[in-house]
Specification:
six-stranded mixed sheet, 3 domains, 9 helices, WH_DNA-bd_sf, 38% helix, DNA-binding transcription factor activity, D-Maltodextrin-Binding Protein, domain 2, WH-like_DNA-bd_sf, 304 residues, LysR family transcriptional regulator, DNA-binding, Arc Repressor Mutant, subunit A, alpha/beta
């Protein structure tokens, strides 16, 4: 069979994306084209190969046996191509273009705020568009190029690069609170304290995770106050309203100046790092590798 043209290779990428997303609509959103364009590309590809690759109904799409076998082989090749192209980004002296990011508040505070002035000065041709949002959303469907999340919450079909080491979570309170209510000595003591609970982006309440040696606990702590972002939890704890469960890095200043004190440090746990994630088959994004490297150098002492 003659060699594939550039357009036909693009059709193969379309096919793999459809198989991965199992939806023409979601694949079209990821690739930035219309569903009719995808249908046309698939008809051309199937005609050229002489094999039916997809089973399509009004409600679903799935690969045929031949299509599944082809997709498995193509995944490996396209992954190598994407990796090779991505590696070139670090050699571009001045990347240009728009980069849309979705990040939670903790990531904006810890990772972006310290390096943004340097990044903007170093790469003036990058248009960086950042949305700070704690909701667990589909970055592809929402039109973002990449996002940041704690490593254990990154969707399985995304490429993820850790931006930090493991992050320690601790229990803190104000001296005035401890003067009134005493200090918890063991994790079970938390069940008789006022705890400031964190409401996550999916609207669930976060269970406090504590560990000591081989013992690991998840506590659904009591408390009349729930807040959906870290700064609010810290402010409430400083105000003596209760105990907070926070990233140690987020309260370094308060621990130093004495407005907050840590307790149960023998039970503090190292949680997953914050990671940058993005669609595995997306074309190289302008400046993303430079941004990842700059953040990692700030927090881990090395680039990816």
């Amino acid at each position: 069979m003659p060699a594939f043209t550039r357009g036909e290779l693009a059709d193969l990428n379309v096919f793999v994306t459809i198989c991965r997303r199992q939806s023409f609509r979601e694949a079209a959103t990821e690739l930035g084209v219309t569903t009719s364009a995808l249908s046309h590309a698939m008809r051309n590809l199937e005609a050229r190969l002489g094999v039916k690759l997809l089973n399509r109904t009004s409600r679903s799409v799935s690969p045929t046996a031949a299509g599944a076998a082809l997709a498995k082989e193509l995944e490996q090749g396209l992954e190598q191509i994407a990796s090779a192209i991505g590696a070139l980004d670090r050699y571009r002296a001045s990347p240009a273009g728009r980069l849309r990011l979705n990040v939670p508040r903790d990531a904006a505070r810890l990772l972006l705020d310290p390096i943004l002035p340097r990044f903007v000065a170093s790469y003036p041709d990058i248009e960086l568009d950042v949305t700070v949002d704690d909701r667990m959303l589909d970055i592809v469907a929402e039109g973002f190029d990449a996002g940041m999340r704690y490593g254990d919450t990154v969707p399985g079909d995304m490429i993820a690069t850790p931006l930090t080491p493991a992050l320690k979570w601790i229990v803190v309170g104000a001296p005035a609170y401890f003067a009134r209510h005493g200090r918890p000595r063991v994790p079970q003591d938390l069940m008789s304290h006022n705890c400031i609970r964190m409401r996550l982006g999916d609207n669930t309440l976060y269970k406090w995770e504590l560990g000591h040696g081989s013992t690991a606990l998840e506590l659904d702590v009591p408390g009349a106050l729930s807040i959906n972002e870290s700064d609010g939890v810290i402010a409430a704890a400083v105000g003596g309203l209760g105990l907070g469960y926070v990233l140690e890095r987020n309260v370094s200043a308060e621990l130093s100046n004495g407005t907050l004190e840590a307790v149960l440090m023998d039970w503090a746990v190292d949680g997953p790092p914050l990671s940058m994630y993005y669609p595995s088959r997306r074309q190289t994004l302008p400046g993303l590798r430079h941004l990842i490297d700059m953040i990692r150098l700030e927090h881990m002492g090395r680039a990816a």
